[in-house]
What does this fold into?
Amino acid sequence: MDNTLRIAVQKSGRLSEKSLNIIRDCGIDFGCDGRVLRERAANFPIEFLYVRDDDIPTYVKDGVADIGIVGRNEYDEKGYQLEVVRDLKFAACRLSIAVPHDFDYKGLESLEGKRIATSYPNILMSILSAKGISATPVVVSGSVEITVQVGIADCICDIVSTGTTLKMNGLKEVEPIYWSTAVMIARQNFLSDEKEKAEIFARLLERMDALMLAKNKKYVLFNLPAERLNEAAEIIGGMKSPTVTPLMDKDWVSVQSVVGEDRFWSVFEKLRSIGAEGILVLNIEKMTE
Ligand code: ATP
Ligand code: ZN
It folds into this structure.
């Protein structure tokens, strides 16, 4: 049996660079010169298939690839039973309803009986039918925004980022209905049936998790009057204990700890208020729990 893990990634588009960066930051060495469609890494048993994003769920389902990185929108639209192994939290976007300016939109119920142009008919119809609304999807694979002007749809459901393209086509966004980020998907049975591949995948995931965990954390070092140590531990919180090193001056200690980026500024201010000095903040490249 071939013991190379095959991963499908987007050849060129919004997902490509970040997908490949994640793998590269896991210490995996590959060329990616943009011309090859298939490539093996030099120092890890993984092979890349560079494909269109729409095809990634199908390749994984059919076993052409073992895993893939794709927008949740494409995965949900295909509706295959695959494993969503990790939410990679990049390529965030939303699917929204957009209508022409003279459309009297009062909520999703205003879509009853309408023709809605979209590239995501399955996602759209499942959201509408869950609310008991019936509408007719007009399926197009691109340039969804022009369908209203040309008279084949009453409104649209499309990925929106800034809204500029909508405006240029006389439409306005009225309601976001679905949110997506890039996810890593895997065929359900390969994890249980192909032991050696599953082990390679586990190694890859462990590296990816170390990266993701480090991403929103800062390593903080500072000097503190020794008598304020308990207060500092309380401020930092949420962890086993800070590392404390004595200094030459017996009244002072050096403290090291990891702090979530979201709490960083409030922790910083509180530490200052109890006399912390020489605060040094470092990015963390990789970490484990
Ligand atoms: P391909 O040639 O591979 O089919 P594409 O044109 O279908 O590429 P991209 O535009 O590269 O695809 O988008 C890929 C994915 O990026 C989308 O499916 C979606 O998950 C995500 N995404 C994030 N922001 C946006 C956005 N503003 N517009 C479109 N997709 C976005
Ligand atoms: Zn596509």
Notes: The radius of gyration is 25 Å. Residues 195-215 form the longest helix (21 residues).
